[in-house]
Design brief:
Blueprint lengths: L1 H18 L29 H32 L19
């Protein structure tokens, strides 16, 4: 396991220090060889500024939605003991007060 962890650390360090170098003349996170949405050599940067802004906003919105979804799964797992929605096991629900 330690050799595998060392490989990951080496790989991530190589990417951070060798491939994705921040250019002070560009916006933060806008790498010259980053490609579309950070995928290397995937068509180059988005030239149309409006389309680029729209795609970056969509990426942020999807990330926020994913964070809310995982927090909801944590909450559900805390209530029911199952993150996959077996609500029949949760008999102490205040929503079942009138059953």
């Amino acid at each position: 396991p330690s050799a595998g962890i060392a490989q990951w650390v080496f790989f991530v360090g190589l990417i951070e220090k060798g491939f994705y170098k921040q250019d002070p003349s560009r916006a933060p996170g806008d790498f010259a060889n980053g490609g579309t949405l950070g995928v290397p050599n995937a068509g180059g940067p988005i030239e149309n500024e409006e389309a680029r802004k729209r795609k970056l906003n969509a990426e942020l919105a999807n990330g926020r939605l994913a964070m809310m979804a995982i927090i909801g799964m944590f909450f559900q797992d805390g209530l029911t003991g199952s993150a996959w929605g077996d609500w029949a096991l949760y008999t102490d629900s205040p929503l079942r007060a009138f059953e």
